[in-house]
Write a structure and sequence with these properties.
By secondary structure, the protein is of the alpha/beta class. The protein contains 14 helices and eight strands. Strands 1-2-3-4-5-6-7-8 form an eight-stranded parallel β-barrel, surrounded by eight helices. Bound molecules: zinc ion.
Amino acid sequence: MPPVPPEAAAQPSRAQTAASGAAPWPAQVSVREVGLRDGLQILQRVVPTAHKIEWMRAAHAAGVREMEVGSFVPARLMPQLADTAELLAFAKTLPGLVASVLVPNLKGAERAIDCDADAMLIPLSASHAHSLANMKRTPDEVVADIARMVDLREQRRARTRIEVGISTAFGCTIQGRVEPDEVVRLVRAVLQAGADSVGLADTVGYADPRAVGELFAQVRAVAGDRVSTAHFHDTRGMGMANVLAALQQGITRLDACLGGIGGCPHAPGASGNVTTEDLAWMLERMQIATGLDVQALLALRGTLAQWLEGEALHGTLWRAGLPRSAPAGHTASATVSALKVSA
Ligand code: ZN
């Protein structure tokens, strides 16, 4: 038998190769915990800073290496996130953690730079109507502000990365349809304005896997790897399916919320982001490396449920539990819930 050529030996594993010529799965994905911002901003209660710090510490111990820790919006508008600077300071004590904050305007960008945030995330709505309602500016006015933030970073010689999240990329509760061409135009515009990277967000849970695959393919065609992040809400139960569609387009950064908390002010009763622990489990089963410890995430979810007593948490893994005998990446012979059903 001839020796195996090196390129054959380096063939991707089952995890990387999808059947029937479909796009390969990525070998590695980064899951960014956004519960401290996207999850908490919608809740009426103010979670004590000590609990948030414990959340960050435990999430880091569970392998989370990217977190959105808050938002630099005026505290009178969002008292839930008034301790963002303190959380950013704590983030620096956690080795290897990339901490980002949401900033809506130039003033927020100044604060992010002052606090030496690793990244600032600027939301840019692809829906004109949503942009006016949420940001009080048209999408093009926000693009102009992003250019000013890039200039500010230059002047200050800061290292804070500038990421833009295109919100309502798949539709909007106010405007309805959002044209994919408008999303592509805005992706181009913000990259020209100097943003480092762009992500697409399904802010109100209108996306479906086909739309996700098609839109990510379109923006990747013009922006390549600078579009690397997907942000899905599980509003109508398609969060995980949308994640798969994004993975198939080479997306390797995914936002998620522990316990699936959060929601959207424009979609009452809706669940929040894709659930971190469910997502971590799915990726582990698919042999896609995340560095996450699912058991530790489940334990943290339990703590979070106590802190947020009375709030709706989402997700399914916590209910069923992990399969009884399922080493990472192997087919489960029996799950706890399946045993219960057949008993
Ligand atoms: Zn969101």
